[in-house]
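Quick illustration, no need to memorize.
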Amino acid sequence: MIQAKINGIDIKVKEGTSILDAAKKVNINIPTLCKHPDLDATAACGICIVKVKGGNKMLRSCCTPLEKGMDIITHDDELQEARRTVIQLILSNHPNDCLQCARNNNCELQRLAADFGIRTVAFPHVAKELPQDSSSKTINLVPDKCILCGRCVQVCQQMQDVWALSFLERGFQTRISPAGDINLSESPCVRCGQCSAHCPTGAIAEFDQTPEVWKALYDPNKYCVVQIAPAVRVAIGEAFGYPEGANLTGKLYAALRRLGFKAVFDTSFAADLTVMEEAAEFVQRFAHGKGVLPLITSCCPAWVDFMEKFYPDMVKHFSSAKSPHEMLGVLSKTYYAQQNAIDPATIYMVSIMPCTAKKYEIQRSEEMYASGYPDINVSLTTRELARMIKQSGIDFMHLPEAQPDHVLGEYTGAGVIFGATGGVMEAALRTAHYMVTGTDADKVDFENVRGLKGVKETEVNIKGNKIKIAIAHGLENVEYVLRRVQKAIAEKTELPYHFIEVMACPGGCVGGGGQPYGATDKLRVARAHGLYKEDDDKELQYSHHNPYIKKVYKEFLEKPLSEKSHKLLHTHYTGRPLYKK
């Protein structure tokens, strides 16, 4: 521990703490633009400058450690003027189309300009006029609005180890682009959207499909239905002033009905269905030797894309179960349509997801048309839904709570925890225990699979069988797990794991690339807590106890892994080894 002063306030912090972080501990906010809590400091923008009393240097506080005896000044006339100049220089090379920008009213550059009272143009405006890239149909790359903070590059290269984005050119010509200056759709991009989640401006944003959904809602010939993912309910409130992690399931149902959807379903129901199929698949492989181990879960489309591109040898280890929203999509156009005498050709299914990659997933293979129609017509992010609610004039905060439509709306606690890293594994283990032993586990919570540790490894004992499991989130952490498996297979040694859960985004779906901006570990924990609390409050916490799951199997699907469920609820994967690790 070292002692120092910041603005005359005595402070004691751990050695190596940056001046920026130390200042926060005494409630002093130093303005920043390039720094994000998830990422290493790059000192790219120069707005977080401070001074040491008695010295004449300006230090970048994000990357400068506080040293013993320092007396730091964070705000004075000289510092404020320097910061203002830096902001004005950035604005001189930035478009002035805030009203048409995806980040209008939620832009870090816009907020800084407002905080510093910048009302006039100090420098000549130099337009970049670079072309936009919407080729991936999941995120838009708008390089004109890039401020070269480097967050997206760091996320893509270090956090996700995908390397789809990089800096091109030098000096005034520097810009962000896929490596080789190719289109995003041709790059290694896995569409996770973490670049957009970490971008401070509108340079990278989700591919907006709200106009398509509005058009469908106003079409009298379409029967519009909708589903909401578990992670959406604990994040949507941030767009309306609610506390972090507030669970607003009932209000979401009500808002979606007011938007004009004829039926409101819950993806958590299909998460229960996924558990039934995936747990049965694991038991078949682990207990009966039918298939290779380890079994790897497949609910994350960004991870699917990553695996097909970078680890095609892992395809045979992948669960063939579709992700929950796809399962619900196909049931809406088969089972639900039959039960309610609705022409499936008229059903227009919208899924509200925390994820940009879901926009890619709904068209990734022919199995996504298993109903004979697109199982999902459009997938919107949490951010897109928030905009639609605001456009519609709905007073979200004062909405009465509503219920979903059954059969496809009722879910257990196991279904709702899918939204947090470790949740898929925990839910599957609850039901796998039952399938192996015929009884429920004595303890419903597998708490050692919870939390934000990048890789969680543990063992679970089911009737004398030790199941070695791993949970990884953030693609860089996923690679550690996969390399261990590859090494064991190559050397023909004991497998390190039998069952693996993977999520591309840090924290799992609660930290998805389509969630409200500003995600940090603190926020991810709050969102996950909202899901685990609902699990605790649920009367039913096992997917196999969901009466509506039983009903669907009895009336339609027969049993897990039946011929019909394979046709409708399962898919296949194709290795595309275009990129070498």
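The chain has a mean pLDDT of 94.
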